[in-house]
Write a structure and sequence with these properties.
By secondary structure, this protein is of the alpha+beta class. It is 29% helix and 28% strand. It folds into 2 domains: 114 residues, 2-Layer Sandwich (D-amino Acid Aminotransferase, Chain A, domain 1), CATH 3.30.470; 160 residues, D-amino Acid Aminotransferase, subunit A, domain 2 (D-amino Acid Aminotransferase, Chain A, domain 2, Alpha-Beta Barrel), CATH 3.20.10.10. The strands form 2 sheets. Strands 7, 8, 9, 10, 11, 12, 13, 14 and 15 form a 9-stranded mixed sheet that branches. A hairpin with a 2-residue loop joins β1 and β2. Bound molecules: 4'-deoxy-4'-aminopyridoxal-5'-phosphate.
């Protein structure tokens, strides 16, 4: 299947979709991105993702050269050109081509890149039986250094966490914040269930405010499940009845073991399963 990549208004075959080595996105990770899902030919929560993209760009003083409406059209045009009913979109905005110094003012024009592709999830078995994770010793970026609310092209912090997971033989790692509280996993948000209440770290706990996280909170409200966005520690995790992760790529995946400790009954719990069913009714009705 031919894969067409949008680069600054042009649709280019993916082998020919290249960027300049002086682009500060490449040299310094100076840029922002989004990862979105296509369900039944439609981009899921496109506006919410774009709002987060423009907020991330605003934080790093990056002027995206398209209006939000123009960006929606560019995304839809790229999805249509790739004839994909289900898949994943990676939207990247880099600072653009500059000189070898850090100064962003040397970059004349931000580059907008939209890639549409398939998505490889965790193995199906993990969705049914639950996944095992560990706590990484690498903490999440300090919000006063590089705020995790910015979805920036600099993902080394998360990659260091991911490397710890891989070395421990598990697919994901929990990352704590600079206060030792639960933040999120390397590319997913985390939820716990304790005494029947759905718990998740608040937006300023050093996390990315996930779009799937927001969707799950909305679904929980609809299902009359009590929710609390609060400070969580590993005490809460080790004593929780249920745990699951959320992300555009991962969707909702149950976690049944962390740091070699069994969580709850060791199988995906009733509230997790209820939310998974509600999520699938929403995205794949
Ligand atoms: N946290 C991090 C660090 C992420 O990169 C992501 C995206 N994969 C998420 C959480 C989940 O966010 P979303 O639900 O918007 O995909």
């Amino acid at each position: 299947m031919s894969r067409l990549v949008y680069i600054n208004g042009q649709l280019v075959e993916h082998e020919k979709a290249t960027i300049h080595v002086y682009d500060h996105g490449f040299l310094y990770g100076d840029g922002v991105f989004e990862g979105m899902r296509i369900y039944s030919g439609k981009v899921f929560k496109c506006r919410e993702h774009l709002e987060r993209l423009y907020e991330s760009a605003s934080h790093i003083c990056l002027d995206i050269p398209l209006s939000m409406d123009q960006m929606v059209l560019a995304v839809e045009q790229t999805v249509a050109a790739n004839k994909r009913d289900d898949g994943y979109i990676r939207l990247v905005v880099t600072r653009g081509v500059g000189n070898l110094g850090l100064d962003p003012r040397s970059c004349v024009k931000p580059q907008v890149i939209i890639i549409v592709d398939g998505i490889s999830l965790y193995p199906t078995e993990m969705y049914e039986k639950g996944m095992e994770i560990i706590t990484a010793s690498t903490i999440r970026n300090h919000p006063n250094a590089l705020n995790p609310r910015i979805k920036s092209l600099n993902y080394l912090n998360n990659i260091l966490g991911k490397l710890e997971a891989i070395r421990a033989g598990v697919p994901e790692a929990l990352m704590l914040n600079h206060l030792g509280e639960i933040a999120e996993c390397t590319a997913d948000n985390i939820f716990l269930v304790s005494h029947g209440v759905l718990l998740t770290p608040h937006k300023n706990a050093g996390i990315l405010a996930g779009i799937t996280r927001g969707t799950v909170l909305d679904l929980a409200r609809e299902q009359q499940i009590s929710i609390e966005e609060t400070v969580l520690t590993r005490h809460d995790l080790y004593t929780a009845e249920e745990c699951f992760l959320t992300g555009s790529g991962a969707e909702i995946i149950p976690v049944t073991k962390c740091d070699n400790r069994t969580i709850g009954s060791g199988t995906p719990g009733p509230i997790t399963l209820k939310l998974i069913r509600a999520f699938f009714r929403l995205v794949r009705p």
